[in-house]
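Regression test case RT-17, inverse folding.

Input:
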């Protein structure tokens, strides 16, 4: 049954999985925290045949208020968050039901930037990041396939940053694609946010599931 799950003391989250098992997917929440929409994403991944786990990076705190979310993000220890992503990946890889040991990620905003940086470790088999980007790595690049879902109107990242990242990934030989969704703002795929755009979110989700299926299934 899907629900709250404790991997170890200090690492809690939400887990959902199909009875037949499948590839693992790490779901990394945005600055609002582990809200019902994140749990719903895990449930949808399980329905699509993936074992999904969303680590709680805020230790039980969440909000729908942008100001409070910014405060929560400012209080986040980046090194600790990265360690939790690593532990969560190991947890998913160790699940007997995870086929082939492959683990991917679906990540949002703050969580997307964290997951993209974590992907440079080589621990992920594929990553989808919603309205998130990072500067191209001067060291180890991301080697796994990358799909970016971008908002048309986004106040948080310079418009050229995703293009620069995708170009750098292509130069490094990494499969990467960026999709910009017309008429959307940052957080358009978060059903708990006021700017949620259902049509764009549903279309982006269909592409996300197809992308993960191509790259995580043997």
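Golden output:
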């Amino acid at each position: 049954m899907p629900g709250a799950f404790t991997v170890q003391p200090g690492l809690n989250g939400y887990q959902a999985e199909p009875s037949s098992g499948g590839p693992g997917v790490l779901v990394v929440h945005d600055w609002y925290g582990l809200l019902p929409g994140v749990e719903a994403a895990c449930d949808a991944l399980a329905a699509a045949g993936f074992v999904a786990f969303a680590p709680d990076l805020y230790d039980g705190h969440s909000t729908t208020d942008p100001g409070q979310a910014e405060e929560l993000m400012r209080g986040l220890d980046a090194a600790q968050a990265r360690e939790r992503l690593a532990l969560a990946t190991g947890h998913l890889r160790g699940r007997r039901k995870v086929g082939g040991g492959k683990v991917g990620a679906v990540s949002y905003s703050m969580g997307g930037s964290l997951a993209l940086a974590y992907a440079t470790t080589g621990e992920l088999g594929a990553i989808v990041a919603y309205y998130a980007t990072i500067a191209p790595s001067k060291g180890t690049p991301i080697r796994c396939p990358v799909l970016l879902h971008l908002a048309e109107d986004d106040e948080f990242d310079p418009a050229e940053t995703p293009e620069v990242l995708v170009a750098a990934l292509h130069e490094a030989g990494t499969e990467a694609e960026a999709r910009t969704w017309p008429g959307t703002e940052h957080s358009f795929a978060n059903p708990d946010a006021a700017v949620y755009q259902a049509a764009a979110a549903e279309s982006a989700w269909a592409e996300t599931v197809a992308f993960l299926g191509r790259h995580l299934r043997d």
